[in-house]
Amino acid sequence: MKMAELDSYRQLLTPYLALVDRVDTYTAGIEKKLAPGIFCKKGCDDCCLAISLFAVEALNIAKGFATLSECTQKQVLQKAGKEGQGCPLLMNHACLVYEF
């Protein structure tokens, strides 16, 4: 899917993105209170090894995928065809589309 096609789905994504903002705000408060006990950081990819998505999440991730270079997209697609690799968007223990 091209970026222009994904933009046509913006209406569908609006409520989802509003929810994501609310969740991010809420979890930022939790993180602030519990920071010493939270060990997740760039390079920690344990939660990216078993993946399940809602359709609206997949749509938003597709928007992020469209921003990647053609070369990177090819690498992701090659990785996606292999079982047991975890999320194909995980490269060098970091998510290529984290902000999405």
Question: Quick summary of this structure?
Answer:
This protein is mainly alpha-helical and 100 residues long. The protein is built from 4 helices and 2 strands.
Descriptive overview:
The structure is a single chain. The chain has 100 residues and is mainly alpha-helical. It contains four helices and two strands. The chain has a two-stranded antiparallel sheet.
Secondary-structure blueprint of this entry?
Layout: H1 3-7, H2 10-34, H3 55-65, H4 70-80, E1 90-91, E2 94-95
Antiparallel strand pairs: 1-2
Unreliable residue runs: none
Largest sheet: 2 strands, antiparallel
- Mean pLDDT, to the nearest integer, reads 84
Topology pattern, helix = H, strand = E: HHHHEE
**Regarding quaternary structure, how should these chains be classified?**
single chain
Gyration radius from CA atoms, angstroms: 15 Å
Strand line-up of the largest beta sheet: 1-2
Distance between the termini: 16 Å
Number of helices: 4
Work out the number of β strands: 2
- Based on helices, strands and strand pairing, what is the structural class? mainly alpha
Strand content: under 5%
Label the overall shape: flat
Helical proportion, percent range:
40-55%
Features:
100 residues; mainly alpha; two-stranded antiparallel sheet; 2 strands; 52% helix; 4% strand
